[in-house]
Amino acid sequence: MGDKVWRLGVYEGEELAGVALIVGIDAKRGRFLFVPHGPIVSLKVKSQNGTSSLQTTAKVKSFYGYLIAYLQNIAKNENYSFIRISPLAERIEENKELFEELGFRKSPIHMHAESTLLLDITKTEEELLKNMRKTTRYLIKKMEKEGVEVETENPPRGEYFLELQKKVAERKHFIVFSEKQIKNEIKIFAPDGEIAVFNASHGGKVVASALIIFYGHRAFYYQAASYCENKNISAPYLLVWRAIQEAKRRGCKIFDFYGASPIDKPNHPWAGPTLFKQGFGSYRVDYLPAQDLVLNWRYWITYLIETARRIKRGF
Fold this sequence. Notes:
Structural class: alpha+beta
Number of domains: 2
Helix content: 25-40%
Largest sheet: 7 strands, mixed
Shape: globular
Number of helices: 9
């Protein structure tokens, strides 16, 4: 995508203690260093209630201290105004306190989904269907009877997805990922079979499409779009079920629905998709919100712009 990146490892002696991908963001709203879904630390410990914490061990604090000092040096040399981290850390008090002690503040806007819904797909297909919401199970079977067909693109291209995404964005007035980004992601993941594009058709016309990423033991319901003039056709239900079946076939253990609305915001823009995802029997995981480390006064210009965007978009 043309962004400048750094790939860093923090070592304890000769042992790799953690890694981080750093992206230099150069946007109209400001310039900053971004750590997406990281850093990945091998020093996580379990709290008494069994949740995963980055918490108060001296080693963890030392790790973050070294990493942040290194990023501050990059930011100074490259003229970035703040550091933003979107950690894959559970939203528990210990993790929140760690970032507060390091001088971070909550970001005014999210960079990635900060809540998700996960489905354990190690169970049999019969068990998975049984654990679904009754309506979800009914619509899967109904779509099969209505003649909805789900196929994967070979090779994956994403043209149908991009076409449907454009229609949905025009109808619901939201900003989508660029065509360049989607095509680049397919290009990068496709050679190793780590992405599949599922298309659901009815009457010979594609009415739903989804990009599923397979990585490790997890399948991600990464991007999806649907548009059908026939309101009685709910193709996404069967499409997701076929994606879950494919994930099981590949040996995945978790199906990650990748994104959920906050529990306390029933009018959130993601409320509808979240209700759809919950119907498959998934459970919720909340991650710590994006965290900002302010380096100079220009951060506050970005803060005001992003706050205004968040309010305008209903987040």
